[in-house]
Amino acid sequence: MKKVLAGLAGLALVLTGCGSSNGNASGSGGTSSAPQAQTLTVYAAASLTESFNALKTEFEAAHPGVTVKYSFGGSSTLVQQLTNGAKADVFASADEANMNKAVQGGVVDGTPTIFATNKLTIATPPGNPKGLKTFGDLANGGLKVVVCASQVPCGSATEKVEKNTGVTLKPVSEEQDVKQVLAKVESGDADAGLVYVTDANTAQGKVAQVDFPESAQAINNYPITVLKDAPAGDLAKQFEQFVLGAQGKAELTKVGFGTPAQ
């Protein structure tokens, strides 16, 4: 009888051990299947703010546990920060010239890909109180015009239009990114500002838009790339493909970005 009881006790211990082992395995499995918290850092041109913020929501929804952190600004400023050692995973520039600087600075992993195009327009206060109709009107005396600084993509595009039209502007200020130009117009500090079509589109109601045909002579190509030694390299590649894919194109075209030639 004692042997039987001892055997039953041993069996109970074995069963208890198995139950405990299964419980731990289940708990371990639950832990391993839980979304891993990750941060994806993206440096992007200021003109991409609205589109990329929309993509942030979609990308995070498709990648539980991931948080997309943006640093928006003038492409030239972002390149300088990256080449000076700032850590990020992805860089999206508003022109190829600044992306080339990033490549030459040794911070790019792979070959950048063009994902969108953009062009300039004239932004004025609502109602276009100065009655501007052409690019040449921006040279009228007494007009407070704001543009981007020459090293910034929108500033470089402005200079191309000036050269092609023979019109020389005398801006009251040169800003470090296109959103700063837009802000000067919205606040009434400027009578007009040269911004991208996408910026004017997203500020509808706050500014009026005056398109001019010469803007087609200064189209900006937007490249995107994964950065060298990206802290979240695999995730960076997924984000790049997300921007290049159907969802990225949908959000970009929604605000007026053009599609690059294939």
TrEMBL record:
Q: Is Transmembrane helix a UniProt keyword of this protein?
A: no
Q: Which Pfam families match?
A: SBP_bac_11
Transmembrane ranges, per UniProt, are none
As given in the record, the signal peptide range reads 1-25
Its Gene Ontology biological processes? molybdate ion transport
Q: Name one GO molecular function term.
A: metal ion binding
Residues noted as binding molybdate in the record, renumbered to the chain: S47, S75, V178, Y196
Supply the InterPro entries for this chain: ModA (IPR005950), ModA/WtpA (IPR050682)
SUPFAM superfamilies linked:
Periplasmic binding protein-like II (SSF53850)
Annotated family: Belongs to the bacterial solute-binding protein ModA family.
What is the designated name of this protein? Answer: Molybdate ABC transporter substrate-binding protein
Q: Where does this protein come from, organism-wise?
A: Amycolatopsis acidicola
